[in-house]
Specification:
1 helix, 0% strand, 97% helix, mainly alpha, rod-shaped
């Protein structure tokens, strides 16, 4: 093999070694990043579940209150009419 070919082989070997090291480092960072994203997603899901439960409870509580308020208005409206007539 000529000396030019040997130099090219050495250069290519060094570049590939550097590329391999960089690829390994990036893979480690990507694994850490995906674990962090998974943790944040789980936290966001828990928060969404808590908010959903709170809204559901509020809806169950407010629904009878709205019905009672509507009935109260209807009754008081008719009571006022009866007082005017009497």
């Amino acid at each position: 093999m000529s000396s030019a070919a040997e130099i090219l082989v050495i250069i290519v070997s060094v570049v590939l070694a550097i590329f391999l090291i960089v690829a390994i480092i990036l893979t480690i960072y990507l694994i850490r990043l995906s674990a962090e994203i998974r943790r944040i997603a789980k936290s966001a899901q828990n928060t969404a579940n808590i908010i959903e439960n709170a809204v559901s409870s509020a809806t169950k509580l407010l629904s009878p209150l709205v019905v009672a308020e509507t009935i109260s208005r209807y009754v008081s409206k008719h009571m006022n009419r009866n007082k005017r007539k009497g």
